[in-house]
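Hey team,

Filing this mostly as a record. A colleague (T.K.) asked me to run one chain through the structure pipeline before their review meeting, and I want the input and output archived in the tracker in case anyone asks later how it was produced. No errors, nothing strange. Just documentation.

Input sequence:
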Amino acid sequence: MKRLLLIVLTLLFIVGVLTILTASCTPAPKEVAEKKTIWPGENWATSNPETMGMSSKVIQDLVKELEDGTYGSVDQFLFIKNGMVIADYKFDVNYKAILEEDGDNHPEGAVAQGGGQYNYDDTNWHPYYNGTSLHSLQSVTKSVTSAALGVAVKKGHIESENVNIVQFFTDYEYDLSDSRKLSITLEDFLSMRSGIDWNTSGGYADGEHSTVLLEASDKWIQFVLDRPMDETPGTIWEYNDGVSVLLGKIVRQATGQRIDEWAKENLFNPIGINDFYWKITPDGEADTEGGLYLSTHDLARIGYLFLKEGEWEGKQILSKEWVKKSVTPIVPDVRPNNDTVDPGYGYQWWIPSFGEGKPTIYAGNGYGGQYVMVAPEYDIVVVFNGWALHRRGEKSTKRVLENIIIPSLKDGK
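Output structure:
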């Protein structure tokens, strides 16, 4: 009897130990389950602010200010968290009425004379393309161009960002007597440290602004190649629209396809972007300094692709390494003496906030109020489109994610 009792007690002890071990080695399902990525199909899934840990009042107050013009002329505000739209507001701005009211008072945005794609007061082109939902992105185009180039690197058409750029322009005749021009690398272009002189003083109202001269010329590529050097490549940050034009040409030289065709097949279609417009320059190239038009929801797809480190529904469109370099401040402080601008710049992406080895926020910024902003820690993509050339606001939508949305998240999530 004692022997039987001993056996029973021993078995109970073993069962108890196994139960403890099992409990300690198997976390609760909620603890081990990774958050499932929600991929947009033809449309984005929707939710509401409260479900995503944010008060609806914060959104309502922001929208009220947007409607009242506090942020200037804004066309759309889109807020996506955890892959779901929780705020999407369009604002009806009558740009023709604004222009009629302002008469001949053209701001710096009216680059070209008369109508056309480079007169920013031509409402057939700005901010929407011919009355469609395709919105001018202006310099957010640069961020998308960089992504398309990154796909070309991933597919092996370009060895790396460390290659010298002269190899891509052997069909052109231009002065290479300055050895600094021979040493420019692709990364120097991507990070706006080309060393190529680009006059931006006086803004677009100045007829000698290099971008104004570029957009008035018939040979864009040649125009940029002919610009003299003023710095050693890789040393000084200088915003240069012409460099972004050459990036588009490099994609064509490397892949054999103009960048709009390349992007359509290898970047846009794989992530569900089926409708876009890209301005074509007089010399037959896509305008990669500011000529791309996307819908607000499709621009968010670009942000979401970067948020997911280049992956889309299990397929790696961009390498994780390329995404990381793009949104890392290669240039940590573009203008040390000016606190009003974004401090960091990567591969044609701005990094307004960076800490602990990773970006808190990164963004594609475009003239007139175009922003795609990503906060990876919070699984957030925010897009603003606008055209605040004639109606500038007291505040900038550029700071909404950083100053309003993130601080308003409950429990910081």
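Quick notes for T.K.: The two ends are 61 Å apart (CA to CA). The longest strand covers residues 358-366.
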